[in-house]
Amino acid sequence: MGATKDEVRAPFPGASIVPGGIRSATMATTLDAPPERVWPWLVQMGTDRAGWYSWDRLDNFGRSSATRVHPEWQDVRLGSRLAANPDVDEYWEVAAYDPPRFLGLRMTLDLRGRPFDPDDERPSHHTDSTWGFHLRPLPAERTRLVVSGYWSLRPRWLRPPLSVLVLEPAHWVMQTRQFANLRRRVAGT
After folding, report:
1. Quick one: which of 59, 66, 91, 104 has the most CB atoms within 10 Å?
2. 94-109 burial, b if ≥16 CB within 10 A, otherwise e?
3. Mean pLDDT of 104-114
4. Is 156:12 a contact under the CB 8 Å cutoff?
5. What is the pLDDT of residue 1?
6. Mean pLDDT over residues 126-132, rounded?
7. What is the DSSP pairing of strand 27-31 with strand 142-148?
């Protein structure tokens, strides 16, 4: 959605984070604010923080996503964990951090939904993925936000059907909503 052919074909940051990963869908939008005003909204994401700015009943467990930038949630760095659920037992870890240009989040789970350390021995059945936010400045104080990432799944035979039937459609629905909500929020700051 919204990504140009060049954005889909161009190299996307974070390719080396997921060994053997394939590029996931690429989506993009233009925001009416410079990257420096968009960045604070991204780094405060997380279920235990500002939410994900998408469908709150689905991805934020019914809690409303923040409608303002919170200074107390801006201290994010490599290795920071952004909770993916209220129990904080699943999380996105900051795997790439280049303010205000690129934020790369990584989640590694076995197929029972338990996180594992990707530097240790990997479970035989697992998923390893990134969710990247690439911000490019545009004229007139605007930002081009391109979202993509890389994904690996074992067993490999499960990747095509799971991608086509579940992950890509769900990502499209959630990412589209996140873009719409981010447009409103950054325009108001």
Report:
1. 104
2. bbbbebbebbbbbbbb
3. 94
4. no
5. 66
6. 95
7. antiparallel
